[in-house]
Amino acid sequence: MEWIDTIVKIVFLVLGTVVTVYVVPWLKEKGLYDIVKKMVQGAEKWSETMDIDKKEWVIERLEARGIVVNNYVEALIESACEELDIAWANVSSEFTEE
Q: What is the Cα gyration radius of the chain?
């Protein structure tokens, strides 16, 4: 019966390692992208009424929240902008098609 305890401990050790190495970073990345998407949407909304540099606005807001803006985060910003543009194009095409 002692070998069952050992096997259970090994299984939990492996699961803990997998969660730590793969799941936690993925969740952090997902959360960061969600934040960036919200900021990009906010910049788009602000730009409707004010003359702002949208990317700079997003970067300022991210840095104000303690997020270091590096090349990776800038790529996330560009990706979120592209995703918003695609969504806008899809909506626009729905209204123009008869």
A: 21
Cβ atoms of 33 and 76 within 8 Å: the answer is: yes
Amino acid at 31: G
Q: How many residues does the chain have?
A: 98
Handedness of CA 33, 39, 42, 43 (dihedral sign): negative
* Per-residue model confidence as pLDDT tens digits over 10-44: 887 877 777 667 766 766 777 888 899 999 999 99
Residue whose structure tokens are 């019966």: 1
What predicted TM-score, i.e. pTM, was given to this entire model?
Answer: 0.66
The whole-angstrom separation of Cα 43 and Cα 18 is: 37
CB atoms inside a 10 Å sphere around CB 79: 14
Secondary structure letter of residue 20 according to DSSP: I
Q: Per the structure block, which two tokens stand in for 31? A: 């959360």
| Tens-place pLDDT, residues 39-68 | 999 999 888 888 989 999 999 999 999 988
